[in-house]
Amino acid sequence: MKTRLVTASVLLAALGVTAAPPPVSASPPPVPVSPPPATAGEHGWVTSTLRHMSLEQKVGQLFATYVYGADATTPSAADRAANRAAFGVETPAEVIERYHLGGVCYFSWSHNLDAPGQIATLSNGLQRAALGDGRKGHVPLLMSTDQEQGVVLRMPAPAAQFPGAMALGAARSAGAARTAARVTGRELAAVGIRQPYAPIADVNVDPANPVIGVRSFGADPALVAGLTAAQVLGFQDDAGVTAVAKHFPGHGDTGTDSHTNLPVIDHTREEWDRVDAPPFRRAIAAGVESIMTAHIVVPALDPSGDPATLSPRILTGVLRGELGFRGVIVTDALNMAAVRQRYGDERVPVLALKAGADQLLMPPDLRLARDAVLRAVADGELTERRVDESVRRILTMKYRQGLARAPFVDVDEAVRTVGAPAHLAAVTRVTDATLTAVRNDAGLLPLPRADRSVLVTGWDTAAFAPVATVAAGFTARGARATARPATLPSDQAIADTAAAAAAHDLTVVLVNKAWDTEVGDPRASQQRLVAALLATGRPVVVVAVRDPYDVAHLPGVDTYLATYSYTRAAMDTLVRALHGELSPRGRLPVTIPRADGTGVLHPYGHGLTW
To answer: Which site among 220, 304, 508, 576 is 20 to 30 Å from 500 CA-CA?
Structure first.
């Protein structure tokens, strides 16, 4: 199906999946639970609301999508134009009113996420549009966003920016994972977002996975299951928001990105039960209220060739029937290429509902999708009773989030909550336990504080400025540090950077997915940059700020660390560890294979300290 760095079975054997599972500190395994029984208030509100809804209102509840603008009623001229092109109306409030939307997903690119007060104000404005004049049948809106943390986060600073899943896997602490979810959930709830699309329950057993990677807790099913359950508890029990375990039935063993093509997972049924299923089973046992589908084909579960999102055998047969899930099934974004290949955009939402999905996320054409579902009911392909089943689940989830009682948020409280000192202190505490020292062959680390010249270079991004952050850390410790970003450098930039390195006492180079050597992929230039820096003969520290697998493709590197993300907190932890102010404690949550696929370069669980 795809080219692998090394087979999944070799990696699983290397980390001992069939042996005793690795320890995950803190929380004990959750006791399997049934969904909590409906209270009289919940049953009454859900039943009464559903009874007073028109079919158009019910169908609207099934959809969640983006809207353009920082304010519900007064977006910018550009956002007005974008809404008009996408939805036929100009303001976010009008989108809600026209389509009776059940949910809105916030993004930076749609200009929803500028600052805590603005986000909270937007949420309140959208809620007013959803609730209308308060008549029965009008339903509070559910706001969501992809706040996985690490390399996938939407809330900008001052929000608490924790390390992502693989970093938490390196820390091996269920308590830390739960803390990250609890703080993240509380900050999201403060601004009106009650459905973070997290945690990731995928087991990343393919190092060449282009879409999951560090978004996964790791390569061991037991580790991933334990941390997934911990985050479900942190989000739901501690913060009162809905956890969304994703991407069912498991997106961790593929070299294909479902945003651009349709992946096929070749696991046997036994392999699926052993590798992919445990995190979802544990999430369900912990009471997870929502699970997101994957646009992937799993022939062992459904030989039809349909992606899981459109598969009754997988969603209704396996997820609901075998695993006993009773919550809300939300599709991954329906504008992704993988789910659009076999059927037209007007068929996909209907087929997803027939498969067992409840929430339909981000169709490429909302009007077309809405009308297709209404037409399917009119034609008898879908019954209104089937629509009612999904709407009832969605209303139940909204009630349990408190939206029926308190749909609005306090803007001043949101400003106080997001980025609170205690939250930022928790970020530092959690991040400090994740840094993994993989190689220190020359004994270069830890570094003494010294008046030395240091070049900091390599991969950079304006959002976090990791190169400048690391350089500033060295400067604060008495070095003469120069920041010279070299993101996906040209040959000339590589030569210039190497010349600069030759004139410095030490070079620290950041790399991001340097293993990715697909034809035409400029990320491979990072390999040439590191080789040129090593050729200077000066000491070089290589830091992987995303996938830890890079070292296999960087011959000659003897000092190598993995941070798994490039947040400011991760870079601060890195600088302190380089200077011996803290000892690295992280251990690899994945196996790093040799580049030629002949075996293991660094085993699961490896990690140095000083």
So the answer is: 576
